[in-house]
Specification:
With about 230 residues, the protein is mainly α. It has one domain. About 80% of the residues lie in helices and about 0% in strands. It contains 10 helices and 2 strands. A two-stranded antiparallel sheet has the order 1-2. Strand 1 and strand 2 form a beta hairpin. Helix 4 packs across helix 7. It is elongated.
């Protein structure tokens, strides 16, 4: 079943059949599925929450059905969380690149929509934890304990998404202040035209980033083949 752009059945099957040795493959599969779903819609906070919730539920359902012996459920869920973190990290980077375009063109971060976008980046990690926690509370009882342990450990460790978000906010604030000192400012009409399509712009940036990575991988593979 497809929900929020996620093939839930595929994730359920993957986690229900996973073994301890497949940890990295699980992380990458979750990351790819999450990123693909995020690319398929405007990158709003509401859509991000839907995708994260759907992935969490599917991974939990699959892990609960896993009969491999022995199976470390917490390890499986940790990989699911790490996969979502990797995808969300790309979403933060897409927001950074989009906001960078506005700053470069003289739009001020005090503009309502840009201020809101910056605030969303700043609270991305909190949103991540809150969404996964809420979704985990709605899954089968046996999975709630493992999820609590995973989330507790990750809160102490911190996420890549949170680290990137903090760095992004600090960097953009500094650049905006520099632009203000340099006297660069977009006209109100230009700024509004840019702001109106912000969510769509970020989505486009995210898709472009993914295509760039795929192209880079293809080029690297071709280079290796030539060397042989």
């Amino acid at each position: 079943m497809i929900k929020a752009g996620i093939d839930q059945d595929a994730i359920v099957k993957m986690f229900s059949e996973a073994t301890a040795k497949q940890g990295e493959a699980l992380r990458k599969a979750v990351s790819d599925a999450t990123l693909k779903a995020l690319q398929g819609r405007e990158l709003t906070m509401a859509n991000i929450k839907k995708v994260l919730s759907t992935v969490t539920t599917a991974a939990s359902t699959g892990a609960a059905q896993n009969v491999a012996s022995p199976v470390d459920v917490e390890a499986l869920l940790t990989k699911a969380f790490a996969g979502m973190d990797a995808a969300l990290l790309q979403a933060v980077e897409a927001n950074r690149k989009a906001l960078q375009q506005f700053v470069d063109q003289g739009a001020g971060l005090q503009e309502k929509q840009l201020k809101g976008a910056l605030a969303n980046i700043e609270k991305m990690e909190d949103t991540f934890f809150a969404t996964v926690t809420k979704a985990a509370q709605g899954v089968a009882g046996p999975m709630q304990g493992p999820w609590e342990h995973v989330l507790s450990a990750m809160k102490m460790q911190g996420t890549d998404t949170g680290a990137q978000a903090s760095q992004t906010v600090e960097q953009l604030m500094s650049q905006a202040q520099t632009a203000l000192r340099d006297g660069r400012a977009a006209t109100a009409k230009t700024a509004q035209a840019m702001l109106d399509g912000y969510a769509a712009l970020v989505s486009g940036v995210l898709i472009g980033m993914s295509e760039g990575l795929q192209s880079g991988s293809s080029d690297a593979s071709a280079a290796k083949t030539k060397k042989k």
